[in-house]
Amino acid sequence: MRNRRQRVATGTAVAAVLAVTSACGGEAGTTEDRVRPAGDSSSLSPGYGTGGGYGDDGSRPTGAEDRSGPAKTLALRADAELGEVVTDGAGWTLYRFEEDSAKPPAATCEGDCAAAWPPVPADDAEAAAGMDAELLGSVDRADGTRQLTLGGWPVYRYVKDARPGDVSGHGVGGTWNALAADGGRAGAGARPEDGGEAAPPAGGAQESRGPEPGGDAALSAAEDPELGRIVRDAEGRTLYRFDQDTAWPMASNCTGSCLETWKPAAPVDVRALEGVDPELVTTLERPDGSEQLSIDCWPVYWYTGDAEPGDTAGHGVGGTWHAVTPDGGRARAAS
């Protein structure tokens, strides 16, 4: 990304930056008088989608305890959007994690991740009618248990599926996908290493891609067919805001492992904007001394789960991440 960082400004540009910094609570002694935005919190939401996008906010639907048992005889269920999806014998959708590997089989979902995505035991699992039984296998996990694999991919259930047949885990974090009968991603074609062409993450690809990488605008407002008017950077990447950050005073609560998934957007030259008011654009100094772009006092980020320019897979992750609008607001909910 070409970062036109404006370290020293003159004339009206300086006045605009100073005005926004003050409005964001940048002056000492003013924070008690600021009105905090709705959704402000001093603690991180456990659903922020880090470490591969667990998609877990701590709540559990009725029957969550049923997610850790044997799969028994698998089944193939027709889903209106994803096509044929693999389920266990009780009808719970089965998933694969893109940060695992199939060649050789390896499971990387541990700890909190495995609490949200319980590994399916390898014992007592049989192929569904119409499936190749030779695609079923197992992988040894770090705790000594054996996990079911399909086409080499370790198999999981999702605790947020409320009832058999739900596919709410598909597309979470851009890294979780319902399984097809051959171990591929349901409704998305095969990954390149599976012998097919890569498909964009669920909910990510949009027909309108916005500016091409290397364009003249450091930031631009683009019309997304589902989300409306949103902001993209010079590489065409969608920019996001985090509900657990604050604008008054301006502060980022995405730290530690959160930053593995959500990357702070670098400051830009306010003279190189298209459709974004330069008076709303300023920078935040992060705890490590680096600077982060902000729009209307909201720190903004790009999402590692977006595969291509124009993707919006980060919108709605954990219920706390939203594509940002040119005025710093949240983009509307996807239809």
Automatic annotation (TrEMBL):
Residues 22-71, 183-225 are annotated as: Disordered. InterPro entries: Lipoprotein_repeat, SCO0930-like. Residues 57-69 have a biased composition (Basic and acidic residues). Pfam families: Lipoprotein_15. The keyword Signal applies. Keywords: Signal. GO terms for biological process: alkane catabolic process. It comes from the Bacteria. Residues 1-25 form the signal peptide. This is Lipoprotein.
